[in-house]
Amino acid sequence: MKPTTTPGILFPWFLLCLTSLPLAAQKKNAFYQLPIRQATSTIRIDGVADERAWQEAAPATDFRMVLPMDTGAARVRTEVRMAYDDQNLYFLARCYHALPGPYMVESLRRDFSFSKNDNFLLFMDPFDDQTNGFSFGANAVGAQWDGLMYEGSKVDLSWDNKWTSVVKNYADQWILEAAIPFKTLRYKKGIVQWGINFSRLDLKTTEKSSWAPVPRQFPTASLAYSGTLVWDRPPPTAGPNVSVIPYALGGLTRSYANATPVASRWDGGVDAKVAITSSLNLDLTVNPDFSQVEVDRQVTNLDRFELFFPERRQYFLENGDLFSNFGYPTIRPFFSRRIGLGVPIRFGARLSGKLDKNWRIGVMNMQTGKESQPNPAGSALPAWQHPAQNFTVVALQRRVFARSNIGAIFIDKESLNHQPGADPKQPVYSRYNRNAGLEYNLASSNNLWTGKVLLLKSFSPGKAGRDVTHAANLQYASRQWNLIWQHQYVGRDYNAEVGYVPRRGYVRVNPQVGYLLFPKGGPVLSHGPLVNAAYFFDESFRRTDHETYLGYGFTFRSRSSLTAWTARDYVRLLQPFDPTNAAGDTLARGTEHRWNAWGTDFVSKPQSLFTYSFSTRHGGYYADGTRLNLTGELGYRFQPYVSLAVSSSYTHLRLPEPWGGQTFWLVGPRLDVTMTNALFFTAFAQYNEQQKNINLNTRLQWRYQPASDLFIVYTDNYFPAPFAVRNRALVLKLTYWWNI
Predict the structure, then answer these.
(1) CB of 66 within 8 A of CB of 214?
(2) pLDDT tens column, 517-526
(3) What is the dihedral of CA 586, 591, 594, 597, to 10 degrees?
(4) Where are the alpha helices (H) located in 408-451, listed in sequence order?
(5) Collapsing DSSP states into helix, strand and coil, what is residue 490?
(6) pLDDT tens, position by position, 317-362
(7) CATH fold for domain 32-231
(8) CA–CA dist 115, 44 (Å, integer)
(9) What are the residue ranges spanned by the domains of the chain?
(10) How far apart are the first and last CA of the chain?
């Protein structure tokens, strides 16, 4: 059978299955309605509900339990009221105590971990499309939470914008009061029904609840289960909405490894946000800098393929799902971290948002500068040039049925004034690389069925043939069953230079089955097995890899969890591979390796001041070797001001010669100090024995007014043995958010 024939048959069969599912239906909780009217008095954001406007606003009460079980009324009482005026949308949440004792929080840090804090969250769907929206909230000491919602239930917490809130604690409750400017939101003029839901987590009772009921297998952020916010008249227009965000930066750097003197840096740039309409935004940037972004956490890497590290730069994040979530985690035609990799970004523009209830659009263009990279001292080779490059991405999404959509994307990378191979002493960069793709995203009205069908094609000079990728998956998630089927095909000539596709030339088949049982009493809330099988084949349908995994998990009523698993692996190497990933000898291409392994994973209950987690793995490895991995994290918090954590990973490999025994430690202590909810200090160190590096990163952030910050960042890198400094850097950056 030809290798392209079977994937070609599977693809339309899967498309037929997805599109034939029942999709069009009324929103599940449409009858949960909260009226909102214009405030009848001025509202002060102080955590005191003494304004006449709050007394006259309709309350949302009678929350339903989601966890531990979704079959009854919430034990913990919550009451929410909403109002508005010409400038702001207001909400007030009364969060009553059900049990005595202090609140449970991590810190005052913004965008906290949901599961580790007593908190109240609002999920808002201004287009009532059950797919995209906004989330706002706070924990019990006032740390803010805000994010963009996408794919029906996911929240991107990297998004920041201007809004104000205050939390005040009382003997029997804590009150959150907030004002969100209409200029912060994106919504269509004239729409008088918005999707809305409220979520409450109370760790003392281990109860999660929501106003409009949500089945326990889904997050409370699931917009498929939102209620309706009914306006007494169309929301006011935001008016002219232009924000200018300049920055100024100064810094000192020194490379001790290259014996260079201290270098100073003085720089500046500007971002701008222009609301073309109330739901469509234009972002502009000139000479952006991202030095305040926290560095990536290091990992011990024993994988044969490139690892993924998420985008952290603010500019790329708003409506970023249109671009970055196209495809699958290992098949991303666009990955924004490829832009500005080791070279400066000169300027960029991005238009993104809603055209109407059914259409979303994203258009982005970024220009990087030409950069000279000197070779190491003493090298006879000349300095090499990285050409200036232009990146263009166009994405379009059309809603179909109840909550599904069809998306299209086009990506173009151009090297400007660059002739590959013209100078044999210079590295070769491709003249251009382009990708075009279509995908259909399935989401049934009740969220039980989800799935995707994907088709991609790349265009590169001198590359043609098997340059197509397609994939599909279908998932059924009920309270007890979780059934998944996925298959992928990536052609060996498929090329996504601005994407993340770590492996090419394969066919993957991946079924998964999970089942949960719910005891009526005792410490165990739920337990059940999970079976997962991943099979990889080359394009001639010869098996190259497979992993069969059997796990059994327990979730306890205390919210701790334990999983035990066993797995069987097979690998036929397609390329030479160093099993230590430490620049050593390699195993030969075509060699076959089989092993068994077992392991455990445990996470302690989040409501304790002292928390811990651990993972274990023991079993076989390449070349009939063995691998032992022990990973753990300890944390303690002096709430709400100080949080301490230490993570560590120990890996021991036992292999035949020439590798022998290899041990890799990875240790990372972290300190978080939150003096107020506007002043934060973070320090963490990372010792990576595999990479032979010690890293220290400290960051002080002062949010002196909403969305405006002062950052002081200091980083150090060291050689572990003999202990010596590699390089150091100190950066001071000031940003200011100015609404015109």
Answers:
(1) yes
(2) 999 888 999 9
(3) 20
(4) none
(5) strand
(6) 766 788 888 999 999 999 988 988 778 899 999 998 888 888 999 9
(7) Immunoglobulin-like (2.60.40)
(8) 30
(9) 1-22+305-374+382-504, 32-231, 507-690
(10) 64
